[in-house]
Design goal:
5 helices, globular, 8% helix, mainly beta, 39% strand, 505 residues
């Protein structure tokens, strides 16, 4: 393995830190690496695996004012690229405005999501609260051959090279980016049309907007989605002809919000509501459907089935988990992050566009979340969802579960004790002929070896374990969202951009 250190950033975190989301599996990094010809410690790299796996991570550099929340950490992108039976690794901080300002100051400047605004040194924040640092640390997607990072509280989108992870600047949708509201955590890309679909939200009426960016990177559609008040939507879904947005009964306590305190409460007497909108529809075209009260972080997919829209997501049985019986102060404080405390289970909703009826069903009794699919099937009927299983009381993943939506069966790979995974992505093999004809790619944090690995599994035989395992230069912090970018797609867009530049010259 050919390894090079390309940079280190200043950290002022205390050496005796005891915060569980800044130590152990969540220990942050300061070093940026470049490694070629990754060391294979198990198996063999498939020669028909072509593309890059990118993962975003919250990676703090400075202590919080008082109460650090793991969603406050700075964005860091990890890249593992594959082609012709070889693999490389890169990791880079996302050079956001906030990171650059704090790096220059040598300390935190903004209050985090669990802190009071008056604790901040600077007040010119971003996000729907207008006081936070936009860390761009939540998700990463690929649009037009470029990686885009996003922030869960509506921030700027940052452009990164998908091979090097170098920050290229902010995305502005050819000058039309909605800077006053930003883009929320999980914009979606339709591989068939090349469109980027997104929403954002704020504390001012109409409280939500929905937009479409076309293959030319133009903002071609942007409409109001009126809500009853400020809400905390996190994800969305789309089909061939529609998008599905949501209004869940977990939102800021209205009395506390008037005092400037952002404390979410679950309101079990209020139904969940889903907005179904034609992808280029107007506010007047929105149809609302009511369902059982819950909160959902992530929806792997949705599709049309006759008069119905079918959508799968992870229903929370306890959106506001009880702290009864939890004696550990950290587990009690961060019980809202633990999959088992929230009781996350795969669920299905059916919205009948003809009758207005809603049908729901539980698809699995297993606790799983962070589900992904073969992206070639996004917006279309799919059979498989690849999800993460959780660790008792902590925001950590201890395995991969393949849900078969046709049979209800599951196939799982459990990571060894002390090893934690990331959101897994399905990478279709070159020339794939079926939905599960490919590989699953994830990154692990191994506390036993004090090391990290890229693990590749056969998507059709998950329980068989790794097809290959590659060692990374350093043990990386645990992390969440990721994407798979096919090599052919990246190269196609680079050729298009080169041709366009040649014509311009």
């Amino acid at each position: 393995m050919d390894v090079e250190v390309v940079g280190r950033l200043l950290s002022t975190l205390p050496e005796d830190d005891d915060h569980p989301y800044r130590t152990g599996p969540w220990r942050p990094q300061t070093t940026e690496w470049q490694a070629d010809d990754l060391q294979v410690v198990e198996g063999e790299i498939p020669k028909d695996l072509d593309g890059v796996y990118l993962r975003n991570t919250e990676n703090p550099l400075h202590p919080a004012a008082k109460n650090y929340h793991p969603f406050d950490g700075d964005g860091m992108i990890h890249v593992v690229g594959f082609r012709d039976g070889t693999a490389f690794y890169r990791n880079r901080f996302v050079r956001t405005d906030g990171l650059l300002a704090e790096n220059e100051a040598g300390k935190a400047l903004w209050a985090g999501c669990s802190e009071m605004p008056e604790w901040a040194i600077r007040e010119d924040g971003w996000g729907s609260r207008r006081r936070m640092k936009d860390a761009s640390s939540t998700d990463v997607i690929l649009h037009r051959g470029t990686a885009l990072t996003s922030f869960w509280m509506c921030g700027d989108m940052y452009r990164l090279d998908p091979y090097s992870a170098q920050t290229l600047g902010k995305e502005d949708f050819n000058g039309a980016f909605p800077y006053h509201l930003g883009v929320s955590a999980h914009p979606k890309v339709d591989a068939k049309t090349g469109e980027l679909l997104f929403f954002n939200y704020s504390k001012e009426a109409p409280y939500m907007k929905y937009g479409v960016v076309d293959e030319n990177n133009d903002l071609v559609h942007y409409v109001d989605v009126p809500l009853p008040g400020p809400r905390l939507p996190h994800d969305m879904a789309f089909t061939e002809n529609y998008v599905i947005l949501n209004d869940f009964p977990l939102f800021w306590d209205e009395d506390l919000l008037r005092k400037g305190i952002h404390h979410p409460r679950f309101h079990p007497h209020i139904p969940s509501r889903f907005a179904v909108i034609p992808r280029r529809g107007s506010t007047e075209d929105i149809r609302w459907f009511e369902a059982d009260p819950t909160f959902v972080l992530h929806f792997p997919n949705a599709y049309e089935d006759g008069d119905e829209i079918v959508m799968e997501g992870f229903f929370q049985g306890a959106p506001e988990p009880s702290d009864q019986g939890i004696t550990d102060k950290w587990r009690r404080a961060f019980r809202f992050l633990a999959l088992d405390h929230m009781q996350c289970r795969l669920h299905r909703w059916r919205f009948n566009l003809k009758t207005g009826a809603v049908r729901e069903e539980v698809l699995s009794d297993q606790i799983t979340e962070f589900g992904t699919i073969n992206d070639d099937y996004s917006g279309k009927p799919n059979r498989y969802i690849y999800a993460a299983s959780g660790v008792d009381g902590w925001f950590l993943f201890n395995g991969i579960v393949r849900h078969d939506l046709h049979t209800g069966d599951t196939d799982a790979y459990r990571l060894p004790d002390g090893v934690y995974g990331s959101e897994t992505q399905m990478a279709p093999r070159v020339g794939s002929t079926s939905e599960d004809d490919g590989y699953l790619v994830t990154l692990t944090t191994d506390m036993n070896d004090d090391a990290s690995y890229c693990v590749v599994l056969d998507a059709a035989r998950v329980s068989d374990g790794p097809v290959c395992k590659l060692r990374l230069p350093e043990r990386i912090s645990s992390g969440t969202h990721s994407t798979w970018a096919p090599g052919g797609d990246i190269r196609r867009w680079r050729q298009t951009d080169t041709a366009a530049q040649a014509v311009a010259l």
